[in-house]
Specification:
With 403 residues, this protein is mainly alpha-helical. The chain has 18 helices and 2 strands. A two-stranded antiparallel ribbon has the order 1-2.
Length: 403
Amino acid sequence: MIKQLLSKLPRKSSKSSANRDHGGNHAANSNASIGSRGSNGKFANSNSSSVAVNNSAPDASQNLGNKIHQGVNSKLNGDLGFSQYEGLPGFKDVPSSEKQNLLIRKLNLCCVVFDFTEPMKNLKEKEIKRQTLQDLVDYVTSVSGKFSETAMQEVMKMVSTNLFRTFTPQPRENKVVDGVDLEEDEPSMDSAWPHLQIVYELFLRFVSSSETDAKSAKRYIDQSFILKLLDLFDSEDPREREYLKTILHRIYGKFMVHRPFIRKAINSIFYQFIFETEKYNGIAELLEILGSIINGFALPLKEEHKMFLVRAMIPLHKPRCLAMYHQPLSYCIAQFVEKDCKLADTVIRGLLKYWPIANSSKEVMFLNELEEVLEATQPPEFQRCMVPLFQQLARCLNSSHFQ
C-alpha cells in the first residue's frame, strides 16, 4: 500500500539523477571547480577536494568531497572515516603530458588538514598525505620548465591551507630576572610538524626555484600573503621559525617589489612588541633577516633606513627580555655604524637612553655592544658623546657586579 502511494508522488527532476547516470565523470567535473580564482586575485573557496575516489560510487564520492571541503581550513576530527582517501601514482609513472594534471591533483589531495592532537587517528591517510607531499618536493626540485599560472595558484592554495592557522598560546609566563629568561623548559613543538615540515620544504624550494617566475608569482605571493606569513613568526616551535626565516629572506631577495612593504611590516611588529606586548617569539629570527638586509643597503643610506634605526632598532634595547635576541640586534646596530660612521653618536646616545638602572646582567650586554660600536666610531662622533658616555662608565665602575 505504501509503495503504491509513493509511486504516485511526482519525482523531482534534479542534477543528482543526471550525476547518477554519468557517475564516471563526477570526479573530473568536481576537480574543475577546485581552486577557482576571483577577479580580485584572492583564492576562492574550493567546492571539493581531488582525493582519489572510487568512481563506481559517485554518491559516496560526493559526500566525501563535501566532508573534506568542510575540513580543509580546519583540523579534521578523525571520525569521518576516510576509507576512500587514496594515494595517487608517482610522477615517474605517468607520461610527461599528464604530469601537470597529476601535480594539480596531488596539490589538492594535500589540502586536507588532519588532526595531529590525536596521534592514532587517520594513520593511513596521514601517511598517504606525507608521501604525496614528499613526491611534490621531489617534483618541484627537479622540474624543468616554468610553472604555469594554474600550478602556482594551486601551490599557494595548498601552502596557505596547511600553514596559516591560529596559534593557541600555552599558559606560560616569561619570568625575567636581570635580563635572563628563566623559562628554560623545552619549547612547545607543533604536533603537526611531520606534515608542516614537508610543506615548508616544498614552499622553500618553490620560491627558490629558477622555474618560478617572479613577475607571475607576485600575484599569489602578495602583501596579504606576506602579512599572514609574518604572523607565523610568533610560533613557539623554533623549527618552524627557522624555516620562516629562510623563506622570508628568499622572498625578499626574489620579489623586489615587496621589499619596502616587508621592511614596514617588520617595523610594525617591532613597535607592537616594544610598546605594547613585549611578547613575540620570532624577534630574533626577524633581526637575523634584517642583519642581512642592512648589510645590502646602498650608500648613502636613505632617510627611511636611518629612521628605522632610531625608531625601532634602538628602542628594542628597552624590553626586559633583551637577552633572547640581543646578539642579532647588536649585529644589526654594528652594521648601521659600519655603513655610516656618523650614526655612531646617535647609537651611543640611544644606548645611554635605554641603559638599565638596576639590572647588571643587562648592563654587561650593553657594554659588550658599546665596545663593538666604539671600534667603528670616528673621533668627531666620539667627541660629541664622550661626556655622557664616561659619566655612565663611571657609574658602571661603582657596580658590585664582578664583570
